[in-house]
Amino acid sequence: MLSQDEKQIQREVREAFPMSDDVDWNEVYQRIIYRYSTPHGLEHVKEEMYKLEDKGEIIIHHIKPYNNPVEAQTLNGSPKKIPTTKLWHHKSCGQCGHIPGYPTSVFWVMNKLEIDYLDEPHQTSCTGWNYHASGASNPVALAGVYVRNMWRAYETGYFPLIHCGTSFGHYKEVRNMIILHKEIRDKLRPIMRKLDMDIVIPEEVVHYSEWLYVMSKKAAQQKKYNLDNIKAAVHTPCHVYKLVPEDTVYDPEVFQGRRPAAPSGTVQNFGAKLVDYSTWWDCCGFGFRHILTEREFSRSFALFKKVIPAVEEGNADIFVTSDTGCVTTLDKSQWAGKAHGFNYNLPVLADAQFAALAMGADPYIIAQIHWHATDVEGFLRKIGVPVDDYKEKFVQYLQDLREGKTEPQYLYPKHRKIDFYLSLPDRVKWYKKEVPK
């Protein structure tokens, strides 16, 4: 006999998960925890990391009080510190190249929240694409790229915030590899020291969507448009929560704690209604290896396994996700379906774009929705954004740029603070014991 509390929990689960009767949750948890987790467990990895620091084998880039960290809960209940300011942006190749309104929305939201950050022009690619497309070189090379970027953040004093979901998952795996395998460290260290660097590992590997989630209630206080009538379907990127899944943030207030907190929690905190659909677990269709060789498979998978269920089962007005490939695939695959008579035209946005637009960001100059293939303008009109006014202003801005009548707009002073760091040829003197640390 179920108690009243147990019955209430069952009702809440059914309301949160309309498809829950058809889901074997034990099987889902087994897939996440046992198939994808590190065999050593994240707590063990972190214990070993601190031991290596004590031995002087690595340098840990610690999250400091000036980073104003917020403590969140991971899949296994362990705490994860999310720094909220003084952040070093590890940007995404695909976002900057295919969805430029994605990173600009992140910066714009940070400006609105008066966050101190560094947009690093001397970051390199994470090489995650090669790694997941089976074109990677070797573990030491992968570790070298990771450590080089983490050292770069460390020497500036800003804590790394990873934009790309693939970089995020890739870096979590590489971090574990460096910590657990001495032979990797022994081969990596002399390479880094030739560059006047050493092995730096950040205390936490943090994805921007985790930052946005823990800041979303504060950001939503500056919301300009009402989203109460918006039904949002969410796709959580595989590389964010299926690679080292125990290092991903969860929250009991988001889907009963059964799915990652970001980006669903951000959408929820901005007032939209989360809708469920049966294929929430599935890949967006992007994958990695097959996008290079079988692109039509990606397009059809995105349409039939993600977009159509989100529309037909969830009646979604918008599809929100939080990774480069997911936004690209879900948005830019729909034209192929339209050509074959499947015209669903479900607008797709990154969570950062979704938040920025709700807060009043310019749809064209900031969110850059003209790079999208789906009807984002229709969604914006639905929430009351004066799209035509913004478009007219944007067209005039472009005309003025062409004619030299105006200067480009910047989200921050050019190379904000970076000139200082680049002007110090001996910026690592403290490491060489020549000056105090």
UniProtKB/TrEMBL annotation:
Residue intervals of the Cysteine-rich domain: 233-331
Domain of life from the UniProt record: Archaea
Pfam families, A to Z: CCG
MF annotations from Gene Ontology: oxidoreductase activity
Name under which the protein is recorded: Cysteine-rich domain-containing protein
Taxonomic lineage of the native organism: Archaea, Thermoproteota, Thermoprotei, Sulfolobales, Sulfolobaceae
